[in-house]
Amino acid sequence: MPEKQESIFETGAELFVSVAPGEIYELVADLRNSPLWSAECTGGEWVGGEPGTVGAVFRGDNLRSGDVVAWAPVVRGRWSTYAEVVHANPGKEFAWAMRDSAGRAQDSVWSFTITPVQGGCLLAHRFRMGRPTEGIREITAGMTEATRERFRHEWAGKLARDLSETVRRLKTVLENEPAALRAEKA
Fold first, then answer.
1. Which CATH number do you get for residue 125?
2. Which one of 19, 151, 153, 158 has the lowest number of neighbouring Cβ atoms within 10 Å?
């Protein structure tokens, strides 16, 4: 993974969840479960390595509405991305880095961290992008510096809202649906 530097996007959200760390990890580390909580990810498929382990690669299938930062040339409708698992610590952390078109991990990492506390866990979902990814460079190519700043500001807000919504949905799923029912839906 590329060297860490100052980030252009860094945001996260966390909530208390009254579920054991292992159960949370099992849910978030299984790609098939993403549609249960994600604002954009509709699922995907493991395409390389041992699923859920460091180095494994997956294709994430996504759907974005047309009103997301509507003025900017972002991908809309259905699209897929490829990502590589960079942390897989059962009961603690699951993280993946987005890959570029050549298959290299970019400085763009999504993660779930689980911290045990009395009565349950703090579940955090974070996103950090250091250097602009291939996609962000394409989106902002040709923009003036002022327009690029506007985009970064609006995109950062979108990311923060998505992460907050994700942890809220995860809390609902984890606390209200038995594991067997979650597995059937995935």
1. 3.30.530.20
2. 153
